[in-house]
């Protein structure tokens, strides 16, 4: 069974075609700068089958429909093609960021699902292109089953005392303001993998999962289900991120507005795009931050320490929420690759039963692995995330009934 996973963003379209017989990627592509003067499409094909594994082309891509047609042309076309015809795609899985309170499981796309997704757009207007992608795909692939997988799904088990904000109750009733959480597909995927690695059923596994990429979030997982997470109504909350601030005193917004004469839109942009690691030291790439620290850059050092401190803060909080855990799990770009961040975030947690093995932590190995000391009561794991594979698996499960 071949499954096409589509992630339609505001000016980009990411896609991955997977062969579910052996969970391999047939091709993956990204179309960037949709609607701008010059767009870019890059597609990588399975190197085992196609010797020329990466192709790039620059051209004007008018809108998301043009981008989707371009994707189809590249997947089946003579030049970069990896399949003979669209019939070789058995199902499509769409990543949808905001599922609101409506969706706690993947859904087969139909008119009702489309309307429910539309109704949730006010909660995440920046992610409206998710729906555009679904609608265009329905036209381009009218006979192919299509499934939506929501970033918020895994977090729908969070209890009300944890997802409510202590603001006037009518704001929840009128505007559905509450914690939704994001990166759910990643937290769920690494939870399953960690349970397998630990040799426990998922339903009996308790974890703190830590997704550290450009966006960063953590989840407290109790018996395989999410009990709390750091992101909120939007992905701006919680940990310090590449360019996002994470949790700040909400009174700061009014303070900045008053003293810097900034409008709320500009402040929102600043907190999303100019804050986090970037806001403190001018770069959002952890590799550059380490290079700068080594050259004595005090701001880079501060950004690194602030970043790890907040991870540690939530490990403590979630340990208190869960009582006992089997493992702390690191994933995504920084979580999987950055031994410095992992070491600093876990430093001092030994009395809580979390002891990292410095040697295992710095070994660069692929796949899921344990990096805690042999006598650490709580394991520390690195589990590479794979959101596309998880979406494809959920899609396959639903389509196969
Ligand atoms: P996204 O959230 O966009 O999916 P990723 O999970 O790919 O992001 O993570 C991207 C981030 O991971 C980069 O900004 C970079 O800071 C970090 N990163 C990637 N590789 C390394 C590495 N080898 N060492 C430290 N940090 C890394």
Which ligands are bound?
Answer: adenosine-5'-diphosphate
Query: From the coordinates shown, what is the CATH architecture of the largest domain?
Result: 2-Layer Sandwich
Helix content: 25-40%
Low-confidence stretches: none
Number of strands: 14
- Could you tell me how far the N terminus lies from the C terminus, measured between alpha carbons in angstroms? 14 Å
Count of runs of 4 or more consecutive helical residues = 15
Q: Strand order, biggest sheet?
A: 5-4-3-2-1-6-8-7
List descriptors.
Nucleotidyltransferase, domain 5; alpha/beta; eight-stranded mixed β-sheet; six-stranded mixed β-sheet; 401 residues; 2 domains; 38% helix
Topology:
Layout: E1 2-8, E2 13-19, E3 24-32, E4 39-45, E5 54-59, H1 64-76, E6 91-96, E7 107-108, H2 111-119, H3 129-140, E8 146-150, H4 160-163, H5 169-175, H6 184-198, E9 207-212, E10 216-222, E11 225-229, H7 251-260, H8 264-273, H9 276-281, H10 286-294, H11 298-322, E12 327-331, H12 332-337, H13 339-346, H14 358-362, E13 369-370, E14 379-382, H15 387-399
Parallel strand pairs: 1-6, 6-8, 9-12, 12-14
Antiparallel strand pairs: 1-2, 2-3, 3-4, 4-5, 7-8, 9-10, 10-11, 13-14
């Amino acid at each position: 069974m071949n499954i096409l996973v589509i992630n339609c963003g505001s000016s980009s379209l990411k896609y991955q075609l997977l062969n579910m017989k052996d969970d391999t990627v047939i091709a993956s592509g990204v179309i960037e700068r949709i609607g701008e003067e010059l767009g870019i499409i890059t597609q990588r094909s399975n190197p085992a089958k196609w010797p020329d594994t990466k192709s790039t082309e620059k051209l004007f891509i008018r809108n998301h429909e043009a981008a989707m047609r371009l994707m189809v042309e590249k997947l089946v076309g003579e030049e970069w093609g990896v399949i003979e015809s669209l019939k070789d795609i058995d199902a499509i899985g769409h990543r949808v960021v905001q599922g609101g309170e409506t969706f706690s499981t993947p859904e087969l796309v139909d008119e009702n699902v489309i309307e429910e997704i539309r109704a949730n757009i006010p909660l995440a207007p920046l992610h409206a292109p998710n729906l555009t992608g679904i609608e265009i795909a329905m036209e381009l692939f009218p006979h192919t089953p299509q499934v939506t997988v929501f970033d918020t799904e895994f977090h729908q088990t969070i209890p009300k005392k944890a997802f409510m904000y202590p603001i006037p109750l009518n704001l929840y009733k009128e505007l559905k303001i509450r914690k939704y959480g994001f990166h759910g597909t990643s937290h769920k995927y690494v939870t399953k993998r960690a349970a397998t690695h630990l040799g426990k059923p998922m339903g009996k596994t308790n974890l703190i999962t830590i997704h550290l990429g450009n966006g960063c979030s953590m989840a407290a997982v109790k018996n395989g289900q999410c009990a709390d997470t750091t992101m909120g109504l939007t992905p701006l909350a919680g940990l310090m991120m590449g360019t996002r601030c994470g949790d700040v005193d909400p009174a700061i917004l009014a303070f900045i507005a008053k003293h810097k004469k900034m409008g709320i839109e500009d402040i929102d942009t600043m907190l999303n795009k100019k804050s986090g690691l970037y806001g403190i030291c001018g770069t959002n790439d952890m590799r550059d931050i380490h290079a700068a620290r080594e050259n004595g850059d005090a701001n880079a050092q501060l950004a690194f320490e602030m970043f790890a401190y907040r991870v540690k803060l939530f490990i403590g909080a979630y340990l208190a929420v869960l009582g006992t855990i089997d493992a702390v799990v690191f994933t995504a770009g920084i979580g999987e690759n950055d031994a410095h961040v992992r070491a600093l975030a876990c430093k001092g947690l030994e009395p809580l039963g979390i002891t990292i093995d410095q040697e295992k932590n710095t070994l660069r190995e692929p796949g899921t692995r344990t990096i805690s000391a042999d006598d650490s009561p709580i394991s520390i794991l690195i589990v590479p995330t794979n959101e596309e594979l998880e979406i494809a698996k959920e899609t396959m499960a639903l389509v196969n009934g």
